[in-house]
């Protein structure tokens, strides 16, 4: 079997954790997350591979970057509304 080299990343605004892994062919997002053992499971809201939403069962390919997604801090619509209001001087 061929080996897959993947990266698992968990990021915050001013810091990040990452692990470079070698997994067996056929490995999934869940396998990578488990082997990376980055912790912070309570902060994970989902997964992505190169910015595209993924499920734990998503198979990985050599060179993939698995991103551990955190919950949104603010509703994007509310944030845009507040910015527009500030720009109008409101």
UniProtKB/TrEMBL annotation:
<feature type="region of interest" description="Disordered">
    <location>
        <begin position="63"/>
        <end position="90"/>
    </location>
</feature>
<dbReference type="InterPro" id="IPR016155">
    <property type="entry name" value="Mopterin_synth/thiamin_S_b"/>
</dbReference>
<dbReference type="InterPro" id="IPR037021">
    <property type="entry name" value="RnfH_sf"/>
</dbReference>
<dbReference type="Pfam" id="PF03658">
    <property type="entry name" value="Ub-RnfH"/>
</dbReference>
<protein>
    <recommendedName>
        <fullName>UPF0125 protein WQ53_15140</fullName>
    </recommendedName>
</protein>
<feature type="compositionally biased region" description="Basic residues">
    <location>
        <begin position="79"/>
        <end position="90"/>
    </location>
</feature>
<comment type="similarity">
    <text>Belongs to the UPF0125 (RnfH) family.</text>
</comment>
<dbReference type="InterPro" id="IPR005346">
    <property type="entry name" value="RnfH"/>
</dbReference>
